[in-house]
Amino acid sequence: MTEETRYPILEKKTPVTDVAIIGGGLAGLSLSILLSKAGYKVVLFEKEKYPFHKVCGEYISMESWKFIAGLGLPLSQLNLPIIKNLIVSSPDGNFIKSGLDLGGFGISRYFLDHQLKEIAVQKGVTVYEESKVNEVIFENEIFTVKYNHGEAFSALVAGSFGKRSNLDVKWQRDFIKQKNNKLNNYIGAKYHIKTNFSDDTIALHNFKNGYCGISKVENDTYCLCYLTTAQNLKDNNNSIKEMEKNVLCKNPFLKKIFTESQFLYAEPLTISQISFDKKSQIENHILMLGDAAGMITPLCGNGMSMAFHSAKIAFENIDLFLNKKKTRAEIEARYANEWKHLFEKRLRNGRFIQKFFGKENATNLFIRAIKPFPFIINKMIKATHGHGF
Ligand SMILES: Cc1cc2nc3c(=O)[nH]c(=O)nc-3n(C[C@H](O)[C@H](O)[C@H](O)COP(=O)(O)OP(=O)(O)OC[C@H]3O[C@@H](n4cnc5c(N)ncnc54)[C@H](O)[C@@H]3O)c2cc1C
């Protein structure tokens, strides 16, 4: 069936697509590949140019392995570090070690997103790079997507534009209107480093009002990534270096890493205004995916799997709509319900853990108290993870 017969109203508009995807991170790219493999016409807008770095801990839970391999990325041939152990340290340097039941693997976003984009292009997705979407209008069952180089028309739109974008602000989504609270106004920073650390372990080092993850990715490189409050930076004259020296390095593990490692970029990659507040899964008939639908705290190390998994359920619903098996209203309701069923509990648990881990004394006490019972850590991880999909 051609797009003209499917959507007679689109006949005079070009370019015409089945689905326009806004944002080419993990959620958007994986959705584009699934749709293109199923024979749909897809256009994906990404405001940056691939390859590019992203603030992310780069530890992916094993629950996504099969899905990513199914997209066409031969993970088992890439010699990636497989991560089976966890160390959590408190700001005072006490620590607990535990095996990870499910575990994960390390891969940089620079490499992963670029590879997925290449697969998307091979499968026939039209990828517009350096193309920032500024507005989406839904009228007479058609979406008009306005971006910095023109307009595109489509039957469906997926919003996979990450944690916080110009569109969130333009549409004044609820989380944007929230006043500062314990779940928003965080900053994130990331470095790639060469250091002396185990291949199969992820460490989570806590410090006052934040935590820092370290684990291996490809090319003998480690990802060092931390999250803290904007207030922490403000209290240190808005200087990242001062904050790292005065706050992070009070944890002896972090002091060792910061003084003995080779940093591959002088300045970290940073992002601000990160919010873990609730978000909606449908906005003006647009299906929201990945972080744009709801963000789990990085402490749980599972945002990337949620991005992939949300793309899978979005694909199944979009397929039903484009095959005329379900109406637009039906797939919107189904998608939002499935999303909530899969992720709402994890997000709630993640928010709870996040509130707890920010406090210096509470974290010190907590690590001391559970040291003899490392299985508790695995229970907490399970509460924020799902199963393979
Ligand atoms: C500090 C930190 C550490 C983390 N560590 C981990 C971890 O170790 N493991 C894990 O699983 N998860 C981690 N996460 C979470 C993970 O990074 C996200 O959940 C994941 O990247 C979400 O993917 P996404 O596709 O939804 O969004 P993204 O990967 O952010 O992609 C969104 C894309 O949309 C583009 N975009 C935005 N606006 C527009 C526009 N208007 N037009 C066109 N393009 C646009 C952006 O350029 C971007 O490429 C971490 C997050 C943070 C903040």
Number of helices: 13
Structural class: alpha/beta
- Taking all Cα atoms into account, the compactness measure Rg is 21 Å
Tell me the series of helices and strands, N- to C-terminal: HEHEEHEEHEEEEHHEEEEHHHEEEEHHHH
Q: What low-confidence regions span 5 or more consecutive residues with pLDDT below 50? A: 1-11
Global outline:
globular
As a percent range, the share of helical residues equals: 25-40%
Question: How far is it from the N-terminal to the C-terminal residue, by CA?
Answer: 30 Å
Tell me about the largest β-sheet.
9 strands, mixed
Average pLDDT, to the nearest integer? 92
The small molecules bound here are: flavin-adenine dinucleotide
Secondary structure: number of strands: 17
What does this structure look like?
The protein has 389 residues and is α/β, with parallel strands linked by helices. 35% of the residues lie in helices and 27% in strands. It is built from 13 helices and 17 strands. The strands form two sheets. Strands 3, 4, 5, 10, 11, 12, 13, 14 and 15 form a nine-stranded mixed β-sheet that branches. Strands 1, 2, 6, 7, 8, 9, 16 and 17 form an eight-stranded mixed β-sheet that branches. Helix 10 (303-322) packs antiparallel against helix 11 (328-357). The radius of gyration is 21 Å and the shape is globular. The structure holds flavin-adenine dinucleotide. Flavin-adenine dinucleotide (FAD) binds at residues 22-28, 45-48, 54-60, 132-133, 160-162, 165-167, 188, 213, 225, 227, 274, 290-292, 298, 301-305, 307.
Quick structural gist:
With 389 residues, this protein is an alpha/beta fold.
